[in-house]
Amino acid sequence: GAVVSQHPSWVICKSGTSVKIECRSLDFQATTMFWYRQFPKQSLMLMATSNEGSKATYEQGVEKDKFLINHASLTLSTLTVTSAHPEDSSFYICSARETGTGEQETQYFGPGTRLLVL
Amino acid sequence: GDSVTQMEGPVTLSEEAFLTINCTYTATGYPSLFWYVQYPGEGLQLLLKATKADDKGSNKGFEATYRKETTSFHLEKGSVQVSDSAVYFCALRNTGGFKTIFGAGTRLFVKA
């Protein structure tokens, strides 16, 4: 089946630094990728929808200048947490929708990246 | 707007017990319905799905039937195993949309 990878799987950083998380579709092309955030013991909250070659669409309440998303190719989207603070510590999960499979096709999820900001 | 409500956990069962995790939804149109499973420290994996009313999704002994009349998609398994311990998320994706809406998740503990 389709595989989505994320890198890194774990990152610890100091407050005020920026962290980049990569999301790759390994064996398929993804026009659309999604970034979710999951707090401990809670559900996934959609942060933004990333479209290849265009600006990301952010959900209400998500700061676009704080969470920079770039979808430069059909297999790679990146999320950069700028000037990270301890409250940004979370589990970030991406998912990808395979190009040309129709709107009802399943999203494939990455394994997640755990961010801890000290 | 669209939403998913699932039973609160945690649910604790003994091995070989019967499992039901309730899920109801609110949506316009005709959404597709999903169950995802998340094992500790991992991302989400699709467990099963159903795309129209009366469809039954099944996988690994789990099943769920899309009930439009009751707007429900309850997850069931006849005999759970310790390895089924995980968090289960009910989700929907509506016609014409790319967004997946998730329920809050239900944590399942299975004791040997």
Can you tell me about this structure?
The complex is a heterodimer of chains A (118) and B (112). With 118 residues, chain A is mainly β. Chain A contains no helices and eleven strands. In chain A, strands 2, 4, 5, 6, 9, 10 and 11 form a seven-stranded mixed β-sheet that branches. Chain A starts with a strand and ends with a strand. The model of chain A has no long low-confidence stretch (mean pLDDT 89). By secondary structure, chain B is mostly beta strands. Chain B contains no helices and twelve strands. In chain B, strands 2, 5, 6, 10, 11 and 12 form a six-stranded mixed β-sheet that branches. Chain A binds chain B through residues 6, 32, 34, 41-44, 46, 49, 93, 95, 97, 103-104, 106-112, 114, and chain B through 32, 34, 36, 41-46, 49, 51, 89, 93, 95-100, 102-105, 107.
Structural class of chain A: mainly beta
**Shape verdict of chain A:** globular
Main sheet properties of chain B = 6 strands, mixed
Report the helical percentage of chain A: under 10%
Instruction: Pick out the low-confidence regions of chain A.
Output: none
Give the total of beta strands of chain A.
Answer: 11
- Name the biggest interface: A-B, 22 and 24 residues
Ends apart, CA distance between termini of chain A = 37 Å
Order of helices and strands of chain A: EEEEEEEEEEE
Compute the CA-based radius of gyration of chain A: 14 Å
Strand content of chain B: over 45%
- The assigned structural class of chain B equals mainly beta
Query: Portion of residues in helices of chain B?
Result: under 10%
The total beta strand count of chain B reads: 12
Instruction: Summarize the helix and strand pattern of chain B as letters.
Output: EEEEEEEEEEEE
Quote the average pLDDT of chain B: 92
Can you summarize the main beta sheet of chain A?
Answer: 7 strands, mixed
* Ends distance of chain B: 41 Å
Mean pLDDT of chain A: 89
Radius of gyration of chain B: 13 Å
